[in-house]
């Protein structure tokens, strides 16, 4: 984004002004951390732009005020949280394709039919108001025929028909489509009923035969709205998985073996799925508190240009090293991914700058995309924020947040060290250079603005001083605006409103994904399928614990494919983690094991969202990029097994145990990178790579004897490389 021009000519500008303008330019990393505009995203103009911009600002402010000043009843707050995201989402994202230049917009019959669908939607919304009046008048419950014929049937009809209509309805990109207006009204009607009923004693009847059928009608409509919105913002993968789980609710009783269960009626299931047993449960609890707060924090970093400073600081620090842009990608993407919460989104925001630069210094297109994907995914395991994963884990397990953040330190350091070594060894093997001095920002100028790291420092300090996550996040958000006043990019009222609008827009994807994940969690908890998976793991553990862990890894990756990190972990934690705990693994170890593989599903073929996003920027084949990113992030697929065999890596043990495991695992991941990249203080042959791989696994495993074996392998190959160099017989650098 360009800076505001000075009214004076450059000839009249003072030396101090020129210096400040140069500093302002140095702070910006062009093309980084800008809002991503998806292909199905509307670009409003005029009053519609003002309307939806105002709604996004109001949505962000609602969360800030409710979390910090005026608390609400929990279920009501979560219902509004989801409904607001749905209303914004249906306004901003189309369900089909836009009418482009030269194409006719929707035919008249579609417009008429969509307008007619507004009638049952508005009628259902009117009924929620009338039911509220009835309850306020002292009635204990609503008449069943009113809930069915005057509310439920019109609402479900309007919702289902408008969803189907939105798939084929064409409208120009600057205007909202009529079917989406119908869906926004349906979201209001569904949420309105929940707000009426959940604030009466009838709330206690959910899941029983006494529950009003209106809850089921509202839940069916709400579930359809969540599934369709999830399809629009993340694609079909999560929707298909959700539908499979929903089909299991009614098909499960007919399945053989451990998959079978007694069965649930439609009314009983849907009367409970839109409660804290499902959609309003742990995933929405986290998205409505920690995640939305850190999305607002990230938006303030973006609007204040602090995010740009992070990237440029990484360029100044590592840009001149061999393969410099790749190392910059590791630092910048790791830092931004920690806050971002979605691997693919982080790839797009930082990769637009780092991937072309990596290609420029000699990395193949597939390697450039893979490095960015691996680094961006790694941000999700980097404390203190871990892409909100730490907060979800704390919510599910009841383990204090600080313990989780501390436990994540060594594994995250090992992962990024491994990726760094992969990058460095490839650069050495191919004889790559770093960036020239004139291609990177001047460190002496950037160091003057090191105070821009203050929001991150304040966040970490507040968390470890015992402040609540919400209070710490709010302080960090306020500090992002305040430190901008000391920089050349000061945040005024307009910038603050822009940040709030950006936060409201950015939050849509993660909120609906968490709600959709809550739907899956509801199926798991209400049908008991999670307990049956636990018994399966217990049976496998009787044969081999390693086999049980391998099976748990495969299920975690499979469940996470095509899903954002937050949803992937939430689902895997419900299905897999209880089974691991059941075979005797500590809850912290079990959840970290599941969390790592859920995160790394973003770079695991065949469905690797982060790698696919990177291939779109690099121009490489998507499958080749995902395979290469899997290779670069290989350490993350080995280290979780160490959680079980050496819990000291999660700070579980004495100081000497933790130190020994950290040191040996560090050597192990370096040897692992050397085996993958065929470079260990010089080029290595195939048999030497196999030895390095075996030695790396021994070191990572963590036992005394395996550590000694790994050290002997690493030391022996190091001496061999040294002797070859002294003898002048070093292998030629590979191309």
Automatic annotation (TrEMBL):
The keyword Cell inner membrane applies. Residues 222-650 form the TRAP C4-dicarboxylate transport system permease DctM subunit domain. It is a multi-pass membrane protein. Its main location: membrane. It comes from the Bacteria. The chain crosses the membrane at residues 49-69, 75-93, 113-131, 151-169, 181-198, 210-227, 239-259, 279-301, 405-425, 446-470, 508-529, 536-561, 567-585, 592-612, 632-651, 658-680, 692-719. It is found in: Cell inner membrane. Residues 1-23 are annotated as: Disordered. Residues 1-12 have a biased composition (Polar residues). Keywords: Cell inner membrane, Cell membrane, Membrane, Transmembrane, Transmembrane helix, Transport. Part of the tripartite ATP-independent periplasmic (TRAP) transport system. This is TRAP transporter permease.
């Amino acid at each position: 984004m360009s800076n505001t021009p000075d009214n004076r000519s450059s000839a009249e500008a003072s030396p101090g002004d020129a210096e400040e303008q140069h500093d302002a330019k140095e702070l910006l990393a062009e093309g980084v951390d800008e809002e991503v505009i998806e292909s199905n995203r509307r670009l409003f103009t005029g009053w519609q732009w003002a309307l939806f911009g105002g709604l996004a600002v109001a949505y962000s402010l609602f969360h800030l005020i409710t979390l910090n000043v005026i608390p609400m009843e929990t279920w009501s707050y979560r219902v509004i949280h989801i409904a607001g995201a749905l209303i914004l989402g249906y306004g901003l994202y189309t369900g089909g394709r836009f009418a482009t230049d030269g194409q006719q917009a929707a035919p008249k019959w579609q417009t008429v039919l969509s307008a007619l669908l507004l009638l049952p939607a508005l009628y259902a919304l009117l009924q929620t108001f009338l039911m509220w009046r009835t309850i306020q008048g002292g009635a204990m419950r609503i008449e069943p025929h009113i809930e069915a014929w005057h509310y439920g049937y019109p609402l479900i009809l309007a919702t289902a028909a408008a969803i189907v209509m939105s798939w084929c309805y064409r409208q120009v990109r600057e205007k909202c489509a009529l079917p989406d207006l119908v869906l926004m009204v349906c979201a209001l009607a569904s949420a309105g009923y929940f707000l009426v009923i959940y604030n009466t004693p009838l709330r206690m009847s959910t899941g029983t035969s006494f529950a009003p059928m209106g809850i089921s009608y509202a839940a069916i409509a709400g579930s359809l709205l969540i599934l369709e919105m999830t399809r629009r913002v993340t694609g079909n993968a999560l929707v298909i998985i959700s539908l499979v789980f929903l089909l299991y609710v009614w098909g499960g009783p007919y399945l053989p073996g451990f998959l079978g269960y007694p069965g649930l009626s439609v009314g009983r299931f849907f009367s409970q799925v839109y409660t804290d047993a499902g959609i309003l449960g742990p995933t929405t609890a986290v998205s409505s508190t920690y995640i939305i707060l850190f999305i607002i924090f990230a938006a303030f970093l973006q609007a204040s240009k602090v995010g740009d400073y992070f990237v440029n600081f990484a360029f100044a620090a590592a840009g001149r090293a061999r393969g410099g842009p790749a190392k910059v990608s590791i630092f910048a993407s790791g830092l931004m991914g920690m806050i971002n919460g979605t691997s693919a989104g982080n790839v797009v925001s930082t990769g637009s700058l780092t991937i072309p630069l990596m290609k420029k210094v000699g990395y193949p297109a597939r390697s450039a995309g893979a490095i960015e994907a691996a680094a961006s995914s790694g941000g999700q395991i980097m404390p203190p924020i871990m892409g909100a994963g730490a907060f979800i884990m704390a919510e599910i397990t009841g383990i204090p947040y600080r313990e989780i953040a501390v436990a994540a330190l060594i594994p995250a350091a090992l992962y990024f060290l491994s990726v760094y070594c992969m990058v460095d060894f490839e650069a050495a093997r191919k004889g790559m250079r770093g960036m020239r001095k004139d291609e990177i920002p001047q460190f002496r100028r950037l160091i003057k603005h090191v105070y821009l790291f203050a929001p991150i420092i304040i966040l970490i300090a507040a968390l470890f001083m015992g402040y609540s996550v919400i209070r710490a996040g709010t302080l960090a958000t306020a500090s992002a605006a305040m430190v901008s006043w000391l920089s050349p990019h000061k945040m005024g009222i307009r910038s603050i409103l822009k940040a709030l609008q950006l936060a409201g827009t950015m939050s849509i994807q993660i909120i609906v994904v968490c709600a959709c994940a809550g739907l899956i969690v509801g199926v798991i908890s209400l049908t008991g399928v999670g307990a049956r998976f636990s018994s399966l793991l217990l049976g496998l553990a009787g044969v081999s614990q390693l086999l049980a862990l391998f099976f748990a890894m495969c299920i975690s990756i499979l469940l996470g494919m095509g899903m954002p990190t937050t949803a992937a972990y939430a689902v895997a934690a419900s299905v897999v983690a209880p089974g691991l705990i059941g075979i005797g693994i500590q809850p912290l170890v079990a959840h970290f094991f599941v969390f790592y593989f859920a995160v790394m599903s973003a770079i695991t073929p065949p469905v690797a969202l982060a790698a696919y996003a990177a291939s779109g920027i690099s121009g490489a084949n998507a499958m080749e990029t995902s395979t290469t990113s899997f290779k670069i992030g290989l350490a993350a697929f080995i280290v979780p097994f160490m959680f079980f065999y050496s819990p000291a890596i999660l700070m579980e043990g004495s100081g000497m145990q933790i130190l020994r495991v950290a040191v040996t695992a560090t050597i192990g991941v370096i040897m692992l990178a050397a085996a993958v990249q065929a470079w260990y203080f010089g080029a290595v042959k195939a048999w030497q790579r196999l030895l390095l791989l075996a030695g790396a696994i021994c070191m990572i495993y963590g036992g005394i004897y395996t550590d000694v074996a790994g050290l002997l392998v690493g030391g022996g190959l190091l001496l061999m490389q040294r002797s070859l160099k002294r003898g002048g017989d070093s292998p030629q650098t590979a191309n």
